[in-house]
Amino acid sequence: MSYLQGDDRSQAWMLPQSLEDYLSEDNPVRFIDAFVDELDFRQAKLPVEAAATGRPGYAPGDLLKLYLYGYLNRV
């Protein structure tokens, strides 16, 4: 069983053309996204395999991105 997948950020919408258009080039979200995408969760011995039963969970990388964004914005 795989993890839940979000929408494709390059998918064209009515206005603006994509979700990337909402963020400036120097927005910290871009750094968080690039940083977490380069991490190897298997090497860190974190559970990265989805369970075979039940509802699919969220991808660990997506949850880490959300956690880091919230931490940086004091949420």
Automatic annotation (TrEMBL):
InterPro entries: Transposase_InsH_N. Residues 18-75 form the Transposase InsH N-terminal domain. It holds the Pfam family DUF772. Signal peptide: none annotated. This is Transposase InsH N-terminal domain-containing protein.
